[in-house]
Amino acid sequence: MAIPVDSSQNDATPLLVWKLSAAEVCERALRKVGAFSINDEAADPDELDETLHWLDMIVAEVTGTRRCYWLTPATVTFDWPAAEQSVVLADQMGSDYPPTGILFPVRAWRVDVVTGLRQAEIELCRRKKYEAKSNLATAGSPEILFIDRLVENQRAYVWPVPSTDDLWQIALEFQTYSRSVLGEQGGEQAGDVPHGFDQTWQLWMVTRLAAEIGDGPVKRLEASTIRDWRTLSAGYLSDLLYTNREKNNRPFQTRRYGG
């Protein structure tokens, strides 16, 4: 006798791990340190605000010191004016310039204007190497690119400088700054600003955040508890960075099925 099957289950949308907002990450951290009971209707506003500030600092530290694939948008190609030693990136990129600015460049290429094909890769260099050139106005095909990210209007410099007869474009891959989760930009409410991390980072975010706010800002927990949470979060981060590295540089190092 055939067993009836509920065909409606086959059409159901698979459940995914819930992606927490910045405010929800903070609420889980507050709950972990014992400041937000499951019987409470809402977290204390002042404690939530303090926790959001700590989350903002954690996000800035992690994204500012490591390659993060979600902060590396599609490569941007822009015109480089002939005979110009430098350009303001926001002016040349137009709407492709990231609203948070460029944290650091990753790779750059010369692009043929006619064919649209990438030519030789341009070396990214520091200010010292760029300024060490005896004649910064030397004409030729660009070989090195320096980006001054410390000024408000980020500026890029090339050497040699394209001559008046050369029409070049530059293709630039870069990592942007992360957005603040405090809701002070664009009129968004604090905690509602997308933090950019996917679901796989949530356990690390909550554990690391709990270790910070449980060490004095919200609660003063036992030193051993804070130490344990810091150790746990460091282990989570190590695993996540390996995954993040694979997404940035090459496919996962696993053998194909049957290989």
UniProtKB/TrEMBL annotation:
Protein name per UniProt: Uncharacterized protein
Source species: viral metagenome
